Backbone:
């Protein structure tokens, strides 16, 4: 759906916004689930699986509210299993393959610190149900941030190999962080109705938290002003999303009416 | 089929106290603050519950358990309503529940952190959790995530026992 060609209603914008938030969390939850049974130590296997559950739970709440706002009788699962990659609006950051543990932690830290500030602002939205969902997620996001930040410190200021691996991860993933602050008419319309967060308000705080943490971890802070990829909020994705969706949607699309008995 | 058993609110609360958390069977859904409100309107019983963690896999089991206990007690007309308007917090747990947890070997949650304190604890000064077995404060966090989303994993350097801590959230 092109949102630029016609006048956007508040309802359409809120639906789109909820789906963007939900897609980020669903896809990242899926990526983290890939660690289940493969974690570097048992505690981390459990931690990543728990965080994956949180994300999938967050996505479920947001999709449920999105279909309620849309009011066309769709079920949240329709959004999850019967959309193709151009209809997914998640950030490219979350769809990249899980990589090694260093890459996973670097991504978790960048996304969790961003989510922390985002949710802090969203806690004031003028919509009771949306606010209730956000408040709940916010408590869990703090644990995710604490967890990933501690691992960044441990890996950065750890062995030569762990330092090198997580430094490479941050360098590789950096061009995907620009999209965290992408804004378009969907968000602008909602912001004027106090229904979305203005990401420019916390960009500086986010940069400070990231820089402080990397420096404390003895890591080099990549250049914030380098080239950044874009397009995912309009449905442009990396090749990786299609593969992820194929795996995630295969069963449901093969047996669309199947149900647990 | 349609038995006309009428229960009052207190009796329903008594029934709900028999519904335990499948992952922490020492606590009921009342101890955990999951059961929020019971209303009896003519013949219809409504139980309002607040989910603990967004991804908690026990939530579905808890809902089914509530339905089962109402049904076996002859209540046909009921509804279990999930409510997100209030945000579940461990501050809702009564002191007796925290005591039960400790006796079970899980360090209970303390008071939740204020927003201003979050950054302080994020950047170092970590919380001190007492060992539920020997009360020593010489303990160390092993992992923010334990066997379930609601618990973290600690180790006691005095009695050399690993233990779980019910997170304050």
Residues:
């Amino acid at each position: 759906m092109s949102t630029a060609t016609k006048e956007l209603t508040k309802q359409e914008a809120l639906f789109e916004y909820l789906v963007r938030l939900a897609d980020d969390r669903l896809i990242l939850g899926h990526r983290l689930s890939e660690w289940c049974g493969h974690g570097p130590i048992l505690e981390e296997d459990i931690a990543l699986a728990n965080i994956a559950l949180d994300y999938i739970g967050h996505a479920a709440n947001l999709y449920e509210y999105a279909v309620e706002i849309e009011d066309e009788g769709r079920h949240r699962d329709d959004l999850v299993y019967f959309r193709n990659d151009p209809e997914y609006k998640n950030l490219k950051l979350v769809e990249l393959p899980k990589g090694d543990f260093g890459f996973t932690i670097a991504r978790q830290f960048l996304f969790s610190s961003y989510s922390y500030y985002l949710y802090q602002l969203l806690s004031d939205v003028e919509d009771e149900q949306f606010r209730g969902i956000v408040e709940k997620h916010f408590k869990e996001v703090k644990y995710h941030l604490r967890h990933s930040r501690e691992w960044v410190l441990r890996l950065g200021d750890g062995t030569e190999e762990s330092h090198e691996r997580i430094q490479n991860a941050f360098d590789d993933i950096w061009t995907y962080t620009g999209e965290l602050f992408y804004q378009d008419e969907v968000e602008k319309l909602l912001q004027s109705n106090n229904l979305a967060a203005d990401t420019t308000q916390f960009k500086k705080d986010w940069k400070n938290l990231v820089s402080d943490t990397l420096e404390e971890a003895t890591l080099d802070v990549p250049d914030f002003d380098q080239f950044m990829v874009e397009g995912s909020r309009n449905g442009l994705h990396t090749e990786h999303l299609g593969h992820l969706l194929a795996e995630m949607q295969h069963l449901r699309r093969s047996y669309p009416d199947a149900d647990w008995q | 089929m349609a038995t006309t058993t009428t229960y009052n609110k207190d009796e329903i609360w008594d029934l709900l106290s028999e519904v335990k958390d499948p992952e922490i069977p020492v606590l009921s859904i009342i101890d955990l603050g999951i059961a929020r409100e019971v209303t009896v309107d003519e013949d219809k019983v409504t139980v309002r519950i607040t989910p603990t963690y967004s991804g908690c896999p026990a939530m579905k089991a808890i809902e089914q358990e509530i339905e089962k206990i109402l049904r076996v007690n002859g209540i046909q007309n009921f509804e279990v309503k999930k409510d997100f308007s209030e945000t579940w917090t461990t501050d809702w747990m009564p002191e007796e529940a925290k005591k039960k947890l400790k006796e079970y070997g899980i360090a209970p949650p303390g008071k939740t952190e204020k927003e201003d304190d979050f950054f302080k604890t994020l950047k170092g000064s970590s919380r001190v959790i007492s060992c539920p077995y020997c009360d020593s404060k010489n303990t160390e966090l092993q992992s923010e995530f334990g066997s379930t989303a609601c618990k973290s994993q600690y180790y006691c350097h005095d009695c050399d026992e690993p233990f779980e801590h019910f997170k304050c959230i």
The first strand of chain B starts at residue 20 and ends at 21.
